[in-house]
Queue: 4 jobs
Job 1
Amino acid sequence: MPRCTRCNTPLGGASGEEATRRDPNEGQPLPPPWSAPPQDPPGWNTPPPPPSGDPGETSISLSPEPWDEPPIWQPPQQTRRRDVKLYLLIAVGAVALAAVATLIVVWPSGDDRNGSGAGPQPQQTSQTPTGDDTGTPPDGTTPTTASGDAAQQARAVDRLLSEMTSTRSQLQPIVAECDRSGLGRIAAQRQSQLDRARSMAFDKLPSGPQMRSALVRALEASAESSRIRRSEGCPATPLPDDHRATSAKQEFIGYWNSVAAEHDLPSRSESDI
């Protein structure tokens, strides 16, 4: 029985010529497995058209589902503005309380405003005595009352006495030589010291008015004595102003030395100033 030359399959009923006919694709390589598969005939995969609906059919709409209903109304959420206002009110209240507490602490009481509670104290006025015993200058001017305590006034007087001592040490050689220009300089220094004594304060010192009067009279006499010696050519005998100056200096020293001892200042003598 003839067989297929390719697959060796019996070829029943075939003629010898047909059995021995060669396959036209014999000897050709087989197609690769990744080649495109054969295509189906057109129209095989097309779905059939849907059946036409019956024009007499009707549809009934069902009621909406519960979960499709709109949400229940809720009140809008409150903003934080109320909290901000609350915090602001608390802060303002705290500041106001602090201010009131501060005023209570620092506000003076009635006793503090009026001193000891007895009302304002009347201003004390001191009457300055006049005359030679009080140190009032002959021209009628009133000495200036300076401020300060007794220690300050005592130190001011002590500085003036030191200047008077320096002037007194210059006077003796000038008088011995009858130096008229030197006598004029001494007279000017005594006048300056006199002006200072008239304006100084003695009110806080014991026997202050009497002390001032004695010092002023001593300087007046000393200045006048220097002027007379300069104009008259140095007379050999003591002048009346010399006696007046010495007497006033002794009176002043009697008051001053006790004050100087109280304030740890040097004591003086009439021959020093």
Note: The radius of gyration is 69 Å.
Job 2
Amino acid sequence: MKAESSNRLWKQIPRLPRQSGWSFRLRLAGGSVLCGGLFLAGMLGASGQQAPRPASGTQAAGGGKETPSEPVPRVAVGEINGTPGASLMIPLYFTPDPQNPLRSLTVEVDYVSNNLKFQKASRGLVTEQAGADVSTTLTDGKPDAKNVTRSKLRISVALMEKDPKQGIPDGLLAYLLFQISMDAKPFAIKLNTAVLAAENIKNPPQKVAKVNTVPGLVVIETPDMMPEATCFFFTH
């Protein structure tokens, strides 16, 4: 009976459409999310590697021609699962346009924040290597008639050099640390993503009007819905 009840509950969770192309998803249980994320970040930093991410152009099954690459430049927020009370480290990725490298960009993430609270951002491997600055600004909205509150998180990434020779590198820009409230119910929260401003490395800098985005997703689960091991990572 318990298994049937869990299955019915799972089917009731609103599942949002998946984006084509690459996405990054971590499935972690309970309070081990933060320790697992820190462990992954430490291991990647020690090895000089970035978090796993599928290539933008992939070989079709059966040896056919490659599937088309997604448009660049592109910013993408990761996908992650967590339980009530868990801390989540959500990756923010950037794929540059080799023909028009960027020196700065400002990303806005809009989301329902009743049970999802932003804590802080940590620089990713490529921003550390490039000496780029990462800053955040959080704006909390007021509850609407249905008591739904939305928040807007702005992440600004900028190279510190006055006349950089190379733009913001390809890879992991930052980890965004969020906290799920203890009384959160099973739900899927879409992290709507937009780029508000971007400039290239020309002197003087020129504005870049179009930067593509891939939204993120947070799926809140209850412990009895997660038969997986306590702490492991996978991508799909």
Note: Residues 25-47+73-222 form a domain with the Immunoglobulin-like fold (CATH 2.60.40.680).
Job 3
Amino acid sequence: MSSSGDERITDEVQALEAILLKDVVVKRVGDVPKYIIETIIHPLTGDNIDQQYVCVTLEVGLSSGYPDTSPEVALKNPRGLDDMILDTINTHIQDKLKNNLGQPIVFELIGIVRDHLTKSNLPRGQCVICLYDFVDGDLFIKTQCYHYFHNHCLANHFIAGKKYYHEELEKLPTWQQMQVPPYQQTCPVCRCTVSCDVDTLKEAPPPKSSLSAPPFRLTAELKELQMKMAELLAVQVAKGGVVGMGDNGPPLLTITTTPTTDNASRNNVAGSSRDAQPGAGAGGARHSGGDAAAADTQPRPPYRGPYRGFNRRGKPGRRGRGAR
């Protein structure tokens, strides 16, 4: 990178940091100087931050040759935006890069993205609880993690979750109930901790699409799908791939070791020496052929050392030797 190009990049980065302050993060990576600029963009809503329903992270990479070469631009972590809006924003960004080659462009890219977010400041897509789209007139809520739900749906979700929590809590013994953390509301999508007033949410009417939707009917296609899913679940349970199914749960992992050749030869030598000792025949006569073979193959318990208990005077001390 030439010194003049490096100076132009440095000047633009310093200008962005002066304008955006804490809203921009600048990273310098690699041996060859390369700047990566990241900023989270929200729609323009004035002082009403609660009315910002969409956002996206703009990442711009300034490498060697900038601004004579186009920077690398990416839109990451979109919230409340569908693919159609993202494609439109990317198209306008690419057009801007082609028409303004050789000029500082990062701040103008931020303006393009912000204008699109301001025009599309409504969540797009479906509510993950009821699977109905957001339409005009629906009352919805934005969580702290920028996920959207109908007020009616989220209230029912929290009510059902709290009921299930208390039902499972009552199954535990009293001493264990004291150790269980209290119920906490979490986002149905990312499981982040959220705080919502359920009493206010449940006063909202259900989604309009659900009121006009046809009643649910179990069709032949759904029955066939249920049978396939039941067969798949049975296969996974048999393989131990589903935790918590059945009375005893999945089978435990069993680790077995095969004796090596050296260990087997040593065991054979030790067995022959025991048979050659005096009295081995008399001792062997007590067992039948199968029992004697089983007794020889049973492993001996490990030596546990002397028993460190209490002596006859009630003081700690040595009280005989442990079993070998």
Note: Residues 249-255, 273-289 have pLDDT under 50 and may be disordered.
Job 4
Amino acid sequence: MRIDLGCGRQKFPGCIGIDLIPYDGVDLVHNINDPLPFNDNSAEFLIASHSLQYVHDLNNVLREIYRVCKHKAIVCIVAPYAHVTANMVNPLYKQQFNEHSPRYWTQDNHKLIGDEEHFFSWPSTWSLAEPIPGAAPIDLRLIRMEFFYFPEYGAYDDLELVLLRQSQLNVAYQIMYHFLVIKEPVSSPDLEMWGSCELEEPLYIKEQRASFRNLRYGDQWVQTEHLSAILDADHSRHSHHVLEGSTTPSAHDPHPAVPGPSPDIAPLDKKRPHRSGRSTKANQSRLSRYSRSKNGSAKNKSRINKKKPGKRN
């Protein structure tokens, strides 16, 4: 069985679509805050695209997801990134998601992502989960995590994006996780194999990824002073409606548009040097130097905070 939790108007192919509103294509009208009407260990794939930010109790919903999924089921979650000022004050968003969220959804310390993803966090262990009295633990192992950036940051390389995203606001607008549901012992090579596989994702993700890649490696550059206009336009296109007498949105937008420049934004000089082509090995070396340097955090954060998006030395 395959489940699209909070499918809205665009159900993921091959899934049972669950939503509070009976849109065309919805198979089961159900409030996802309530227990899911499925047997234990019955789903091999579950996707929740821009729906979990609205739930009242995320821990309860995650326990239900864990309960209905089989061992080694894939769970894909797409959500607004927490470090966006418009998301912080959205009264409909009950939950926030960032790079640290998956650390609370497993008690295992094996991880597949780099140390730079929790550089600004003092705990040295990956897992931050603590047992909840009276609740069975869940084990959702993160096998992939991806961020989607505002176009103003297309000129920065991968390591700079990581540091900017974790230290400043309005850098990334969306996050996508892929988890492997673990209910039996699993080896590290097995986890790594799953992490290297091609994983299912919403169609709009491919469009957003392609748009940002074209921005980074193509001829189009955008000026940065239009960030507020882009944010306003994006949120006006994707406003959410609430049922009368309910705090649950009637629909989430399953296909958020790619934030992009307005038609009147003139491209910058396309001959401007672009440094995103640095190798992964080079970035790891830079991160190592960053970590070891005395007072490195303060120095580098100061350097980054002085930068303006789109401006390069």
Note: Strands lie at 2-5, 16-19, 28-29, 43-49, 69-80, 140-149, 172-181.
